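Project outcomes to date are best conveyed with an example. Our students and postdoctoral researchers have been running inverse folding experiments weekly, and each run begins with a structure described purely in tokens. The record below, which covers 409 residues, was selected by the lab manager from last quarter's runs and is presented without edits.
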């Protein structure tokens, strides 16, 4: 099964074609995107937003399976409920310290299949006053999340959970975002010369009729915002990026951190995703970019193939998240690999507890293998990282007790 950090290697021509219903769906979305291109090439971020989030048709907004063995990829909470239980250990420490009474809440931003809601809320259910609040842009996924919670805990659970279209005000508790920042739309650029900020912007135009994908890259005059963003990245590197260097930049990350900062009154934000500190994110070896698409457990790099039927992502620049903290009235609290963060939150003990009642050898092996997937460096352990920001919270977080990578940001 494919993790959403997998290196794109599938040959576009060898991807298994969708069925007739899938093709018709993708053609409808492509036709609507094509209408917008009639006025001129779209920016890549605009294309990505439409391909993933156009109401009723975008990848996350329509009925495709997406998550799990029958979908396109798996995320950490889908690998094992131990991920959510370890996160719950961290959340419990914070919630105990905050002691927010009836205002106590966990806000999960972008809850996917609901797997994390089930394991995280499940492990914290004993806290009678805790509310679980899900911010989800996709009403189709919100329904799935509700079904997953009801299947796990019964219909009564709905009295303690609510779904929102945007981050709520005055949160006292923990805001969690797992594998969401990588799904925020990015812009793409190519360095034109060795001079900082001298770039082409990669936009999206129409492909020739009969081409395998409906759209192609098209050069755009870069926007001032993109030039400023790339220049700021380059100012942070040892030298400007070389001519021909191609990459992406997440211009939505800082506004998103700003919205999180405005929402949090008191507590902690935990962001887990795949990516790198800036100097590694924009290293020489990544000079062809980090854009990756996931389709039926194949990772490839044709973002224009079957729009609406595949996920499109890019690796996160964790330095950009840390930089956005102070202007958003948030404090930086820690940064570690996902493996170290989970082990610092007693993953090993939680695995032993889960393993003890298992009678079948096979079930114990599956559990041990999930722990390896979540923590080993070659799996999710290092490619995925956790960063914590906070407001009105100055206690050290146990998730960073084994490792502190802040110096790498
Ligand atoms: C890759 S999935 C991750 C799901 C889940 N967190 C997990 O780990 O399995 C991204 C999720 O973020 C949601 N999402 C993306 N942008 C969003 C936004 N602006 N507001 C709310 N949810 C959003 C998507 O609909 C989807 O549920």
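After processing, the design step wrote out the following sequence:
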């Amino acid at each position: 099964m494919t993790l959403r950090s997998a290196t794109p290697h599938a040959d576009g021509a060898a991807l298994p074609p969708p069925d007739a219903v899938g093709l018709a769906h993708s053609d409808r979305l492509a036709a609507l995107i094509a209408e917008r291109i009639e006025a001129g090439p779209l920016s890549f971020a605009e294309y990505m937003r439409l391909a993933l989030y156009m109401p009723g048709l975008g990848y996350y907004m329509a009925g495709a399976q997406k998550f799990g063995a029958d979908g396109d990829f798996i995320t950490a909470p889908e690998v094992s409920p131990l991920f959510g239980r370890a996160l719950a250990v961290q959340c419990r420490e914070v919630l105990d310290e905050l002691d927010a009474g009836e205002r106590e809440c966990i806000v999960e931003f972008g809850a996917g299949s609901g797997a994390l809601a089930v394991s995280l809320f499940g492990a914290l259910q004993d806290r009678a006053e805790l509310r679980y609040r899900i911010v989800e842009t996709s009403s189709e996924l919100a329904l799935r999340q509700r079904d997953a919670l009801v299947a796990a805990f019964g219909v009564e659970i709905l009295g303690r959970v609510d779904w929102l279209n945007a981050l709520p005000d005055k949160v006292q508790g923990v805001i969690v975002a797992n594998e969401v920042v990588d799904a925020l739309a990015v812009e793409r650029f190519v360095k034109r010369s060795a001079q900082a900020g001298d770039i082409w912007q990669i936009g999206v135009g129409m492909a020739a009729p009969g081409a395998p994908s409906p759209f192609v890259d098209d050069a755009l005059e870069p926007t001032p915002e993109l030039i400023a963003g790339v220049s700021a990245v380059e100012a942070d590197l040892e030298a400007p990026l070389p001519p021909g260097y191609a990459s992406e930049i997440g211009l939505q990350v800082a506004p998103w951190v700003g919205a999180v900062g405005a929402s949090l009154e008191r507590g902690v934000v935990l962001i887990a995703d795949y990516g790198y500190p800036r100097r590694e994110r924009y290293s020489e070896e990544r000079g062809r970019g980090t854009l990756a698409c996931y389709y039926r457990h194949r990772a490839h790099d044709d973002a224009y193939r079957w729009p609406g039927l595949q996920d499109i992502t890019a690796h996160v620049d964790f330095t950009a998240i840390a930089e956005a903290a102070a202007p958003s009235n948030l404090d930086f609290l820690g940064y570690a690999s996902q493996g170290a963060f989970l082990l610092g939150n007693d993953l090993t003990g939680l695995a032993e507890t889960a393993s003890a009642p298992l009678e079948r050898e096979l079930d114990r092996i599956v559990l041990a293998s999930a722990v390896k997937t979540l923590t080993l460096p070659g799996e999710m352990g290092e490619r995925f990282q956790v960063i914590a920001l906070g407001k009105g919270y100055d206690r050290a977080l146990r998730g960073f007790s084994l490792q502190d990578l802040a110096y790498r940001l």
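The chain has one domain: 1-409. The radius of gyration is 21 Å. The training component of this project remains on track.
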